[in-house]
Design a protein that fits this description.
about 700 residues; alpha/beta; Rossmann fold; 3 domains; six-stranded parallel beta sheet; 28 helices; about 15% strand; binds adenosine-5'-triphosphate; 3'-5' DNA helicase activity; DNA binding
Length: about 700
């Protein structure tokens, strides 16, 4: 144990070092600000670059340096939110947490010290060093860390919560660090129970990838989350790690051009999310293209042009073979038929030539070309043949040259009657027409489940809206178990390289169209180019609450292992029986007695409005409000100090209600209470019942 004098001396020394780091940071900021103002209005690229650099330097203010490694070879490395170098000699002052040399900060243990003699955690507030926490590591005695060992346990337990997710860069655990730094180029699936840090790990992995693969900054990275509230919850993490260039969105937000006006019943949403919808949409588009049974005729400039079914069939084959989307392939189809029509018209024109006096003479050979004899006859009749074409005196001549035919083709393509005939065979389509044809909504409004269908149709049609075409170099999908097969197709279209990080928990699926197997969800898109990584330790939910979920989990997921909690709450969950009539009073009473931290009341949708009204809460929720009322689906991915679950039997009554109830129970970091009107569901019966309400 160091004496308090030694500790004070160390604190002073570390303060000096940290002060020097901030001085260096200030110099870099001043430099970036100067470059930015020099570039202002003159050089847009330079401006964007220096703006981003300034934002990066600003965002690392809190906790700039949070660790130190003393290595066995005598070197000492400081670890922090970004890399800093000495101005003059390029000496490294601070190592970016993502650099390979910083990895032992997260992975070194007693059993596998990775050359580390001492790991020091440096706690700061503002620019002041508050505390140091040292771990002395023995020389390496094994190749691998003991399973489940916690790194920097004191700091981990001290990590505070504010309602919005914070970065965990100072306390990232070994199993999490391995996922963050995984170099796999395909689809990495991070499966883990509630509170295992899947979201946090995915965000840190994104920061790591942006650091190690700078080209991703230009190709763009996207995070897809389940709700806007969730995106708000995680919105601070990447900026806090110095990364600002990340696009976030829900499936609906990926198509801001489509307005949602209604919600589908679960069974309709399930149908719309099914994989066979892709075939149905493709078939609906194909069915709009037709080959006529009889020849079609169209009048053009007092001439009748005829197209046979076989002409149309060949044009259709040609357009289909082009592999282009419907609306672009339509142009191939049209061009082919117009070529045929122009050729036929030319032949007709050349088979009859009129003299100046209006007399018709036979001016054409059987193949529509002019022989020398024809030319002589035409010249005698006063027809002037383009002299430029007389070079080929020996062969047959055409009356109309290529330019004439090209003009004829253009005239055909813009002729109203011709266009109507062509559109009748291969019409231009919009995604809205196609989807409405499959699922007509009398009010003409779209639901969330329609979005992947509209997006699919847009891809098949080749619609060119910016929102439908944008792609990214890496995509993170959070709460990925909720994505329907059609939503997966939509996400995959935005990631042509299939470089993805997917996080989720199959035991938390609530969407009936969602995933029950990662392989089934991913194989159609990436075959076996995906890998599973697992997280096993729950950093959020206390052991007492996890124990209370035991019966529910075992009943519905006998094949899965629940995560192990690292913390104990010190109090067990409780339940309280009531009646539906009493429910608002009981809830108001519990909410009124809640004094510390944030409380989430998680209820089936049926009671939502009533509870918000009786608690006088706004209908829209800010996640930082002290009391919020949410459905289990809205609570996905969030966490609260206390959770009050209302009417668990009603939650369980929906098709995947057991998963919803599991999600609801695992949102609490401290306290869980359940209010059940009527008998308690069997899965919760072992939770201790509170003494009934007096009166
Ligand atoms: N290494 C860590 N150090 C400190 N806090 C951590 C660590 N890992 C996770 N946490 C915290 O645990 C909580 C749960 O993390 P997160 O939301 O990422 O888990 P999750 O697996 O996505 O949860 P769920 O599936 O239940 O939504 C968060 O508050 C997060 O900051």
């Amino acid at each position: 144990m160091p004496t308090s004098d030694e500790t004070d001396r160390e604190l002073v020394l570390e303060q000096e070092y940290v002060t020097a780091l901030y001085a260096r940071l200030d110099t870099l900021r001043a430099h970036a600000a100067t470059r930015l103002s020099a570039a202002r209005d003159a050089d847009r690229d330079a401006m964007a670059l220096w703006q981003a650099e300034l934002a990066r330097l600003e965002s690392v203010e809190d906790g700039l340096c949070f660790g130190r490694l003393d290595l066995r070879d005598g070197r000492r490395v400081y670890v922090g939110r970004l890399g800093l170098f000495h101005d003059e000699d390029d000496e490294q002052l601070l190592l970016d947490w993502r650099a390979p040399a910083a990895q032992p900060f997260y992975t070194a243990t007693m059993a596998a010290a990775h050359g580390v003699r001492r790991r020091r955690r440096i706690t700061t507030r503002g620019r002041v060093v508050l505390a140091l926490d040292d771990e002395l590591l023995a020389p390496d005695t094994a190749d691998t860390a003991e399973e489940g060992a916690l790194v920097g346990e004191a700091a981990l337990m001290a990590a505070d919560r504010t309602g919005r997710m914070r970065d965990i860069v100072t306390t990232l655990q070994t199993e999490q660090d391995h996922i963050v730094r995984d170099g796999y180029a395909g689809v990495l699936v991070v499966q883990g129970g509630p509170g295992t840090g899947k979201t946090a790990v995915a965000l840190h992995r994104l920061a790591y990838l942006l650091y190690t693969r700078p080209h991703l900054r230009t190709r763009g990275v996207l995070i897809v989350g389940p709700s806007e509230v969730f995106l708000d919850h995680i919105g601070q993490v990447l900026p806090g790690l110095g990364e600002h260039a990340v696009v976030t969105g829900t499936i609906a937000l990926l198509r801001p051009d489509i307005r949602i006006g209604r919600t589908d019943p679960a069974e309709i949403a399930e149908v719309k999310g099914g994989a066979d919808m892709a075939d149905r949409i493709a078939a609906a588009v194909r069915s709009r293209v037709r080959v006529p049974d009889e020849p079609v005729e169209v009048e053009f400039e007092q001439q009748t042009v005829r197209l046979d079914p076989s002409d149309c069939r060949r044009a259709l084959d040609m357009a289909t073979r082009s592999g282009l989307p419907h609306n672009q392939a339509r142009l191939v189809f049209q061009r082919r038929l117009v070529e045929l029509m122009a050729q036929r018209l030319t032949d007709q024109l050349e088979s009859v030539v009129f003299t100046d006096s209006g007399d018709a003479i036979d001016g054409g050979s059987a193949d529509g070309r002019l022989s020398p004899a024809d030319l002589r006859a035409l010249a005698a009749a006063g027809v002037v043949i383009d002299p430029g074409r007389e070079d080929d005196r020996d062969g047959p001549r055409r009356l109309l040259d290529e330019d004439d035919v090209a003009r004829l083709r253009s005239a055909l393509l813009t002729d109203g009657a011709v266009c109507r005939m062509l559109d009748g065979l291969w019409p231009p389509l919009t995604a809205r027409q196609v989807v409405t044809g499959l699922f007509a909504d009398p009010a003409g409004q779209w639901s969330t489940a329609d979005i992947p269908l509209l997006d699919e149709a847009a891809a098949i049609l080749g619609e060119t809206s910016a929102a439908a075409r944008v792609t990214f170099g890496h995509v993170v999908v959070d709460e990925a178990q909720e994505l329907s097969a059609m939503a997966w197709r939509m996400v995959m279209r935005r990631c042509p390289t299939r470089s993805m990080t997917i996080v989720g928990d199959l035991a938390q699926t609530s969407d009936p169209a969602g995933a029950s197997s990662w392989d089934r969800a991913l194989r159609p898109h990436v075959r076996d180019r995906w890998r599973l990584a697992q997280l096993t330790i729950n950093y959020r939910t206390p052991a007492e609450i996890m124990a209370a979920t035991g019966d529910l989990f075992a009943a519905h997921h006998p094949g899965l292992r629940p995560p192990r909690s690292v913390r104990a709450a010190g109090e067990s969950p409780r339940r309280r029986r009531t009646t539906l009539a009493e429910l608002p009073h009981v809830v108001a009473d519990i909410a009124g007695g809640h004094t510390s931290g944030r409380l989430a009341i998680i209820t089936p949708p049926a009671h939502l409005a009533m509870l918000r009204r009786s608690l006088r809460l706004a209908m829209t929720t800010a996640i930082t409000d002290p009391v919020v009322v949410l459905t289990p689906v809205q609570a996905k991915g969030l966490e609260f100090d206390s959770v009050l679950i209302i009417d668990p039997a009603a939650i369980l009554a929906t098709p995947l209600g057991h998963n919803d109830l599991y999600v609801a129970m695992t949102r609490a970091t401290r306290r869980l209470e359940i209010v059940h009107p009527g008998p308690v569901p069997a899965e919760l019966s072992r939770i201790q019942e509170r003494t009934p309400f007096p009166g």
